[in-house]
Amino acid sequence: MSGIGQFFVANPVISIFICLGLGYILGRVKFGSFTLGATVGVLVVSLIFGQIGGVFTRDTVLGDIFFDFFMFAIGYRVGPTFVSSMKRFGMKIIISSFLFLIFAFLTAWLASRSLTLALVLPLVQLPVL
Description:
The protein is mainly α. 74% of the residues lie in helices and 3% in strands. It contains four helices and two strands. Helix 2 packs across helix 3 (38-53). The protein starts with a helix and ends in a 15-residue tail after the last helix.
């Protein structure tokens, strides 16, 4: 790993702020008739930076806290429309989910029968009485 890569691994806070700054700049650049936006720009720069920079260690507790913040923000933003959408379309979504589940199971079962594969249903051996 080069000296710059070692510097970024040793100082992850600087790496984060460089990704934020470059991603924000990339998000403002116009590509034809559209722009990526700040969020997509930061994600793209962070992915590229992570692939080039090597292995970055992170504190798992800090990562879990920020993931929780992210989930809260998504839920806070989408929550009211989700509830009203479930009131309107909930039964259709549940029925289509069950139909998809049954279709996927039947497809796997028929494929295993036609290919003469052993389909193992019980994951735990039950004692014989």
